[in-house]
Amino acid sequence: MEILPFLLAPFVASLILTGIHAYLGVHVVERGVIFVDLALAQIAALGATVAVVVGIDPHGRVAYWISLAFTFLGAAIFSFARSARGHIPQEAFIGIAYAVASATAILLMSKATGETEHLKDMLVGNILAVSWPEVRKTALLYGAVGIFHFIFRKKFLSISMNHAKAEQLGISVHFWDFLFYASFGFVVTSSVAIAGVLLVFCYLIVPSVGAMLFADRIGSRLAIGWTMGTLVSALGCYLSVLLDTPTGATIVVTFGSILVLMFFLHLIVHYGRKAPEREGAASGRKELETASSSQRPSLFF
Fold it and tell me: Which one has a higher pLDDT value, 248 or 84?
């Protein structure tokens, strides 16, 4: 029981991450921009690198707002790069932005002197080091983003689920795309600082993919995704203490393992449902063949 207080703040932080990322993951998967969080995270890291190079405290508010400004720039690029004709996949622009931001950060870090350790923390993360003030601040920020998305959920879902139809309905797709990516940037910039890129990516994508194996409706997907994220967070924290392994990496591996189990369960359920249908179809074909053969004229008397 002595370890419970030590794990409580990281576990609550993981629940907060689950709440907002499972929802955003539904949009990301439907839009087909799976690696957008990695790109935005790298752009945020580029902003932090710029702050370090010009001599700003990497842990101060000014550095955070510079990083967020770079994220907003990336949001604007991604929202306007979505071609109406669709001849250039948006994922191509996301990949290019990630590569350019990474290379630029490397060039800038080569000019920095000893102040780049925080960038490693930003990318790798250490969820065990999260404090209660950080948990409260993150909960308030994500709560505000959640309320914003709830109020305008119809527009966001319309654009994510059917981009062409949203344009036909007269919705300003570029404007609402920018608002989506900007709010997404708020979340990613804060989440990566707490949990690191890999764990944030898993919270964003894995619950949504796991939910899609069993549900088509958005409400059902969210229920499955939130349940999965909560259970995996608890199990990952427990295993990290039991096995004495890094918590973030343990949760990532747990996510992957649970997703594999869910996939096999999906196969069992899917083929279990298909078996009676196949038997019924085979029986129907056999009866049809029997009836057809009985109606053929006999060649022998």
Answer: 248
